[in-house]
């Protein structure tokens, strides 16, 4: 279904009954990212998946920011009459979920972050990252989606995905190719890692349960999350053996159970 927020149209999918579990995909992902888990999770939860701006069926091309997207998610929650949500985000979706949790902590029952971060600590790091994301956005606009997806699929962060069955790799590639260059470029410019606030100093204020999940082969985000968990009053970090950045793709059985058990307090 579409939910109109001001001039934007957010694509939102819902399944199941119970406590609300809101799912936010990563860069180049979409609601379909979560398809393998919906049947399992919707047995116990009211699962809500949202296409973030620049992705999937959501139509929101004017300038936005991670803060304005969080404001929109808050409005979507109100439209759906949702109270305290369990919020799960992967990578960019995790940065968005953590941003929402810092801006609207009263709305969050629990937070699950897969391979994500609170942003960059210094202004220099943010500026340098904005330049990197801008170069990527220009690459997208100049070379087109197919060329960008070929590049993106081959960045070192996703090296572990090369060991996945070809069918899974192709499915991922088709998901990335289902977008358009303009939307992904907007996402890089307006919701890139360098464009968001740093939430590092807010982590200690988050009193609800927070589960951090990283793959042991994803050294960068595992190191970041080891630092994050020490700042969270009610946090835990699960390290997934032999997995890289996209644990939900590489170890779906383990990932699906970890999320269910965490929310059900098992
Ligand atoms: C390459 C880096 O940053 C990117 C890595 C992951 C994020 C993401 O959402 C990727 C999802 C996917 O393609 O599976 C992305 C983001 O957070 O926006 C980052 O740009 C890095 O080394 O930080």
Tell me what you see in this structure.
It contains 10 helices and 8 strands. It is α/β, with parallel strands linked by helices. It has a single domain, classed as Rossmann fold, CATH 3.40.50. It is globular, with a radius of gyration of 17 Å. The mean pLDDT is 97. The chain binds the ligand C=C(O[C@H]1C=C[C@H](C(=O)CCC(=O)O)[C@@H](C(=O)O)[C@@H]1O)C(=O)O. The ligand C=C(O[C@H]1C=C[C@H](C(=O)CCC(=O)O)[C@@H](C(=O)O)[C@@H]1O)C(=O)O is lined by residues 26-28, 91-92, 95, 155, 157, 192-193, 220, 246.
Tell me the radius of gyration: 17 Å
Biggest beta-sheet profile: 8 strands, mixed
Give me the number of helical elements. 10
Q: pLDDT average, as an integer?
A: 97
Small-molecule binders: the ligand C=C(O[C@H]1C=C[C@H](C(=O)CCC(=O)O)[C@@H](C(=O)O)[C@@H]1O)C(=O)O
Percentage of residues assigned to helices: 40-55%
Give the second-level CATH assignment, the architecture: 3-Layer(aba) Sandwich
- Runs in which pLDDT lies below 50 for 5 or more consecutive residues are none
Distance between the termini: 33 Å
* CATH-derived topology: Rossmann fold
Helix-strand pattern, N to C?
EEEHEHEHEHHHHEHEHH
CATH class (first level) name: Alpha Beta
- Total domains: 1
Q: Quick one: overall form?
A: globular
Quick one: how many beta strands? 8
Strand content: 15-25%
Q: For the largest beta sheet, what order do the strands appear in spatially?
A: 1-2-4-3-5-6-7-8
């Amino acid at each position: 279904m579409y939910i109109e927020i001001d001039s934007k149209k957010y694509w939102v999918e819902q399944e199941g009954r119970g406590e609300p579990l809101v799912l936010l995909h990563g860069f180049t992902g979409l609601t379909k990212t979560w398809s393998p888990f919906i049947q399992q999770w919707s047995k116990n939860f009211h699962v809500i998946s949202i296409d973030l701006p620049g992705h999937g069926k959501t139509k929101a091309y004017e300038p936005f920011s991670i803060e304005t997207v969080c404001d929109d998610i808050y409005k979507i929650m109100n439209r759906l009459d949702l109270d305290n949500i369990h919020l799960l985000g992967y990578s960019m979706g995790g940065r968005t979920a953590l941003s929402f949790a810092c801006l609207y902590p009263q709305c969050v029952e629990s937070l699950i972050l897969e391979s994500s971060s609170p942003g960059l600590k210094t202004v220099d790091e943010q500026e340098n990252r904005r330049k990197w994301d801008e170069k990527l956005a220009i690459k997208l606009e100049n070379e087109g989606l197919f060329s960008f997806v070929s590049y993106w699929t081959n960045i070192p962060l996703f090296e572990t995905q090369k060991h996945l069955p070809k069918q899974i790799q192709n499915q991922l590639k088709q998901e990335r190719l289902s977008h358009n260059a303009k939307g992904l470029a907007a996402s890089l410019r307006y919701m890139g890692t360098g464009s968001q606030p740093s939430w590092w100093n807010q982590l200690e204020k988050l009193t609800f349960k927070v589960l951090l999940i990283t793959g042991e082969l994803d050294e960068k985000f595992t190191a970041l999350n080891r630092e994050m968990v020490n700042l969270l009053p009610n946090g835990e970090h699960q390290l997934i053996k032999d997995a890289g950045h996209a644990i939900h793709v590489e170890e779906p059985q383990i990932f699906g159970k970890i999320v269910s058990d965490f929310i059900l307090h098992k």
